[in-house]
Specification:
With 616 residues, the chain is an alpha+beta fold. It is built from 15 helices and 21 strands. The longest helix has 22 residues.
């Protein structure tokens, strides 16, 4: 799931009715205490986004309309082979059957008991665990059951029984007319994602695998058709961005699945949307305009899927070329462990690995691919990422905007943060993303103070609030990158603190030298006395030992020293317990190195990180 726009402001103890949610949203947005912030947020939106949001909210306050599927639905037999990157049917484990037999559902690092005979599908608008619930309704787990059936083996018969049971139960009790179904189960993004898994499982099983379905097959096809029809009438023009692209993917699945005039219209809409969104969402340097490495991979997967689902050859070629343009950034935006940096909203269980995307995607497109790691330095100026891959350092420096102005929902207040690996291991990390709920964990993950950058007067560099909203935005400027054979230097500044007294600004220079170490130079300009705080979040596998003016970090035989110099005025150095969220629903305890104090501007703070082989 991705940003779901202006959701209800409260954290209800029970599901809320759409009408209650609508009134609460209006009341919250118009609260005079937040009016200025609301204006700073809404002024970046397109008028069409606000119009569509209003239309959908008004509609949700009324009973749903009846959608009837035509009699005698026909499924096409010439369905294309669509690649499934990062998911192999033979890799599905039989533990899934054991869990579902007990009514336990697992996703995003967490398991919940929802019941076997009478499953609680968690319908209704929710203040907590929204991402987990909507992921439940994506139905990837249903496809996994089909994969186990297809494999045969000792769990196949039980998997077949569970598949029929849960599908029938979901269709019967999560229908559009069921109270609370429109909140998450029939959310457009959930429908678009579910259509893909349903179409895949239907063709994966084949006619022989559906011999015991009986009346379920007709109900399944009718529900699939109705979901596609509802999606076609509820495209996410209010959110746009990756949501609108996923809507196109869902319509393309249904358009290629059914053989009737409505399906033809769905496919035509999907084709138009896909071409338009390729031009709108992919930046000149190949990066996705929401500036999240995780959503970059999600969007790559969607373009790859559309390259096989669309029938128009010109549109298919546009999808292929768009994917190839995005592949270059995916090659560079990965740590030596093969996984993405956690910049903005990102989680290691939120998308497939970049190496899988590159290898399997190129193979699907008929291109040879040798997975040679990127070496040297590169600036992606539109995406806003400066990268260095050397020995022993890999560095990812965030020098861009927080995201596209009219949809920055996945932005963190992390301008000029960075991540780094040392000798192939993550050393300095971003806090990651735990959930998409309006709570203190979400505020921590998005806030400047949790990132590897400078925070002034306790204020976020960009005004991130609620779950996906951003008011005032930091603007990057003066970006410059220099690359040598064994060294890398990048400099950038931002305007996020110009509203504070004395109009401060922050400029950071990062230098990496293979034979030496990393140097951070933070130049704080402006006037007056300000509370300056800065820190580095250390990956959990590293041990921290305090030193005078710094720390020693150890991981096995690897050891580095961190020390802080050149501050004008006293700084307090300490290391504190901190949370690290490498994946959705996963929290690990780690340490954060911090230095802070009341300083007169302008001033400089220099941080050195160097190998310390004498203490390895």
């Amino acid at each position: 799931m991705c940003a779901t726009g202006f959701a209800g402001a409260g954290v209800p103890k029970k599901p809320m009715a759409p009408s209650d949610l609508w009134h609460l949203e209006i009341e919250y947005l118009m609260d005079l205490r937040h009016l200025a912030r609301t204006v700073r947020t809404l002024r970046h939106l397109r008028l069409s986004q606000m119009w569509w949001r209003l239309c959908y909210r008004v509609e949700q306050s009324r009973p749903p309309g009846l959608i009837r599927a035509p009699v005698g639905l026909v499924v096409k037999t010439d369905f294309p082979e669509v690649p499934l990157v990062g998911h192999r049917a033979e890799d599905v484990q039989s533990e899934l059957v054991e869990q579902l037999q007990q009514g336990t559902f697992s996703c995003l690092g967490q398991s919940r008991q929802l019941g076997r005979k009478k499953t609680d599908w968690l319908l209704g608008e929710r203040g907590n665990d929204r991402l987990w619930v909507i992921t439940l309704h994506y139905h990837q787990w249903v496809w996994k059951l089909a994969a186990l059936i297809q494999q045969g083996g000792p769990t196949a018969e039980l998997a077949n029984s569970l598949l029929r049971h849960y599908l029938a139960d979901w269709i019967g009790r999560c229908d559009l007319i069921a109270p609370g179904s429109r909140a998450l189960a029939w959310n457009a993004y959930a429908i678009a994602t579910r259509l893909g898994w349903w179409c895949r499982l239907y063709h994966l099983l084949g006619e022989s695998g559906r011999t015991e379905w009986g009346p379920l097959e007709g109900k399944f096809l009718e529900s699939l058709w109705r979901q596609a029809a509802y999606l076609h009438g509820h495209l996410e023009w209010d959110l746009r961005a990756n949501h609108l692209l996923r809507d196109a993917v869902g319509l393309a699945w249904a358009g290629r699945f059914f053989d009737n005039p409505e399906a033809r219209r769905w496919l035509d809409t999907a084709t138009r949307l896909a071409v338009e969104q390729a031009a709108e969402q992919v930046l000149p340097d190949g990066g996705h305009f929401e500036r999240s490495p995780m959503y970059h991979l999600h969007v790559m997967e969607d373009f790859l899927t559309l390259a096989f689902l669309l029938e128009d050859e010109s549109a298919r070629e546009t999808m292929r070329q768009t994917w190839l343009r995005m592949a270059e950034l995916a090659k560079w935006a990965r740590h030596p462990d093969g996984q993405i940096p956690l910049l903005n909203d990102a989680a290691l269980n939120g998308a497939c690995r970049p190496d899988m995307m590159l290898a399997e995607g190129r193979a699907a497109l008929g291109q040879a691919w040798t997975d040679t790691p990127a070496v040297g330095g590169r600036l992606f100026p539109d995406f806003g990422l400066a990268v260095w891959h050397g020995d022993p350092w890999s560095v990812f420096f965030d020098v861009g905007s927080v995201g596209v102005d009219y949809q920055p929902g996945h932005a963190h207040a992390d301008t000029l943060t960075f991540e780094a690996s040392y000798r192939g291991r993550r050393l300095f990390v971003d806090p990651g993303t735990y959930c998409y709920d309006n709570n203190k964990i979400r505020r921590y993950d998005r806030g400047t103070a949790a990132h590897n950058t400078v925070c002034l007067d306790g204020v976020d560099s960009s005004e991130v609030w609620h779950i996906f909203r951003v008011g005032r935005r930091a603007r990057s400027r003066n970006v410059e990158v220099k690359v040598g054979n064994d060294r890398f230097s990048a400099i950038a500044a931002h305007s996020g603190y110009r509203g504070l007294t004395g109009r401060p600004s922050h400029q950071r220079t990062i230098e990496a030298v293979n034979a030496d170490g990393l140097t951070l130079l933070d130049q704080l300009d402006g006037q007056g006395r300000h509370e300056v705080s800065e820190g580095l979040l250390v990956a959990p596998s590293w041990q921290v030992e305090p030193l005078e003016q710094g720390w020693r970090l150890r991981h096995g035989d690897d050891c580095v020293r961190v020390w802080v110099t050149n501050a004008v005025g006293p700084l307090t150095l300490e290391y504190i317990d901190a949370a690290y969220h490498p994946a959705f629903g996963v929290e690990e305890s780690t340490r954060r190195l911090t230095w802070h104090g009341m300083l007169d501007l302008p001033c400089q703070i220099v941080v050195h990180v160097q190998p310390d082989p004498s203490h390895a």
